[in-house]
Amino acid sequence: MNEVTVGGMRFELDLSQPLYEQVLDQVRSSIAKGEIALGEKIPSVREMAQALKINPNTVMRAYQELERDQLTETRRGQGTFITADAEKVKHIRYKLAEEAVEEFLAKLGSLGFTASEIAAILRSKGGEGQ
Amino acid sequence: MTKAAIQGSGLVKRYGRRNALDGLDIEIPENSVTAVLGPNGAGKSTFMRMLTGLVTPDQGTLRVLGEAPSWKLNGRISYLPDRARWYEGHTVAEAIRWGSNLLPGFDAAQALQLVEQLGLKADMDVKGMSKGQEARLMLAMCLARDVPLLVLDEPFSGIDMISRERIVAALIDSFSDRRQTVLICTHEIPETESLFDHAVFLNDGTVALSGDVEELRATRGSVQDIYRQLYV
């Protein structure tokens, strides 16, 4: 599927993977990147389903998960909003960073690199720290 | 497992020497959007027609919304048959009036809104319509009914791209507004698979595979991929 922008958030869905997880991940990363600001309203389930051309149940499932993680809150009669709590967003940024690093380390580990070799590669690619 | 809106077991339908349905065991979850898929001759239309009693099984049992198919039950089913043409000689407005008088659960105001959303006008003559326009009218008539079961047999076949996109948008709105079990039989898999909760793949009158579409994606890939795995 082509890239679609909805309410400032960018989505690109792959029909060979569960759609609910992709919507969830992509909203999370939009929040982490600041594509959507703290306290901002997100599209309704119907608007999101129409824009992505997917079943509203799939959007609903992703939205419920966001709410459970307290990344969004629904105000009755007004819609669903991104949390205004900067700590929660910071938390999700670190969580996404950890996931990316774990994936990266697993990949290099499978290629047989040791921790010090990996650190050397990072430095050579412009990482400043030790 | 959620409750089943449709439950068939051991369904057999013979046409001459051929079994269109050959011991079909099938369950359609309540309030799901379920795709019934498979190549021509797999038994899709025979099964769909059975739901409204247009075809009776030679063997097996079928429960639809907890009952055996009957005229009375058909009042709770909104059915878009394959290759149907209902409104020749009508205008759009007359078709909607006809619906108000004859179709249980029909909401004329919603029908008018739907035909406009689908790019039609109340004063259009059905006779002069293109195939795509007529298909959009038929769909509007089906979606305007507040009934527990919606059955769409090939709503997209032979219809232009813009009409298809409008139909998909109308379906998404309908799914947002209403808790309803929806059954769609289609060959247009790439364009429609993102709409399905559940899929049933038929082959030679039996179920080759069925399941929750998101689970199938996680284990086997897209509906289109699975279709190729099963039928090529």
Automatic annotation (TrEMBL), chain A:
Domain HTH gntR-type: 17-85
InterPro entries listed in its UniProt record: Tscrpt_reg_HTH_GntR, WH-like_DNA-bd_sf, WH_DNA-bd_sf
PROSITE patterns in the cross-refs: HTH_GNTR
Keywords: DNA-binding, Transcription, Transcription regulation
SMART domains: HTH_GNTR
Xref: CDD domains: WHTH_GntR
Database matches in Pfam families: GntR
Molecular function as annotated in GO: DNA binding; DNA-binding transcription factor activity
Protein name: GntR family transcriptional regulator
Species per Swiss-Prot/TrEMBL record: Cohnella xylanilytica
UniProtKB/TrEMBL annotation, chain B:
The keyword ATP-binding belongs to this UniProt entry's keyword annotation: yes
Pfam families: ABC_tran
Residue ranges of the TM segments: none
Domain ABC transporter: 6-229
Keyword annotations from UniProtKB, A to Z: ATP-binding, Nucleotide-binding
KW ATP-binding (keyword) present: yes
Family annotation (InterPro entries): AAA+_ATPase (IPR003593), ABC_transporter-like_ATP-bd (IPR003439), P-loop_NTPase (IPR027417)
GO MF annotations in UniProt: ATP binding; ATP hydrolysis activity
PANTHER family hit by this protein: SKFA PEPTIDE EXPORT ATP-BINDING PROTEIN SKFE
The name this protein goes by in its record: ABC transporter ATP-binding protein
Species of origin: Cohnella xylanilytica
